[in-house]
Design brief:
Blueprint (H helix, E strand, L loop, with lengths): L5 H13 L2 H8 L3 H15 L4 E4 L2 E4 L1 H28 L4 E7 L3 H16 L3 E7 L2 H10 L4 E5 L11 E16 L19 E3 L5 H12 L5 E4 L4 H9 L5 E4 L16 E4 L7 E9 L6 H20 L7
Parallel strand pairs: 3-4, 3-5, 7-8
Antiparallel strand pairs: 1-2, 5-11, 6-9, 6-10, 6-11
């Protein structure tokens, strides 16, 4: 295969534009002998004659014209590559892979992606749903570039492998059957529900968060039913089967309307509001990459909007 030397092809193109070796040398800040040597080398590598004598000057051969026709396509593609690379370096292009737990996707990731599509359409974001703990495994193995997780289930801030960014303190409200005696109790506290049957996951982050919140309120919750899907939990609460803590972010994921809708009273625990802390993490050092930094900024913006709209909550 012929050796298509880009630098030498540019010299040939300049010769076509300028007409003489001397003018080519001046344009490229080279000596005329250096121009001649480079073009002789290109001719040898391609195995064709590129120049022929024309009076006291030289002119391009038919082979040279053919070479330049193809070279122009190469130059155009290199210009596009330069533009794409510049966009990547400026965070305007490329792909950022995000791993996130289920309720974070509609509440934070989707709004962030929508904003990035508007402000930086060349930057692609791919999303992979993963449990909070599994998101870190994906991050460590390089399957995602950014992991959205919960602080309680993440490596410590001192872990040298990751950089962590706090996004949101997500309040936990309590869901009770609409006809429950405490559904309209003023100043409801979590401790008031110590004797109630509870609904939460049998294992994993939500089980730990529910148990920790209740234990902080002074009791160990009696688990009557186990479920991980929020709509399943909502349905069981509506059926009078127990009470449950519901993260406010879950409302952005299609959970039924709060308040007394659907047979459920959703109450804000003003006195002792438990929260779960949502964080974003990247492999240490990668967070400075422009594309990833733009995604982080969009997630912060989505988290601020989520905190603003959900600050007061609903108290039915």
């Amino acid at each position: 295969m012929a050796d298509w030397d880009i630098k030498k092809l540019r010299i040939l193109r300049t010769l076509q534009e300028r007409g003489t070796v001397t003018a080519t040398a001046e344009a490229l800040h080279m000596t005329p002998s250096a121009v001649s040597q480079q073009l002789s080398g290109l001719a040898r590598s391609l195995g064709v004659t590129l120049l022929e004598a024309h009076g006291r000057r030289v002119r391009l051969t038919g082979a040279a014209q053919l070479v330049l026709r193809h070279a122009e396509a190469v130059f155009a593609q290199l210009e596009r590559a330069d533009a794409d690379l510049l966009g990547y370096l400026q965070g305007e292009a490329g792909t950022v892979r995000v791993g996130a737990f289920s309720t974070a996707i509609p509440a934070l990731v989707v709004p962030a992606v929508q904003e990035l599509r508007r402000s930086h359409p060349g930057l692609a974001v791919t999303v992979r749903e993963a449990e909070a703990e599994a998101a870190y495994e994906l991050l460590a193995e390089g399957s995602v570039d950014l992991a959205l997780s919960l602080a309680a289930h993440a490596p410590t801030p001192r872990d040298p492998k990751f950089s962590r960014v706090a996004l949101l303190a997500d309040p936990l409200d309590v869901a009770l059957p609409a006809g429950h005696p405490l559904a309209a109790e003023p100043g409801l506290r979590l401790a008031d529900l110590a004797g109630e049957p509870w609904i939460f996951g049998s294992s994993g982050p939500w089980s730990q968060i529910t148990r920790a919140a209740c234990e902080s309120a002074g009791f160990v919750p009696e688990q009557a039913h186990s479920a991980a899907d929020w709509n399943a939990i909502w349905a069981m609460v509506a059926a009078g089967m127990g009470v449950a803590l519901v993260p406010r972010m879950a409302r952005a994921g299609g959970l039924r309307a709060p308040g007394h809708g659907g047979g459920v009273a959703l109450r804000v625990l003003h006195a002792d509001q438990p929260r779960r802390h949502v964080i974003a993490a990247a492999r240490r050092g990668s967070e400075a990459a422009p594309g990833l930094a733009r995604v982080l900024a969009a997630l912060r913006q989505a988290a601020a909007a989520q905190a603003s709209t959900g600050r007061t909550g609903d108290d039915g």
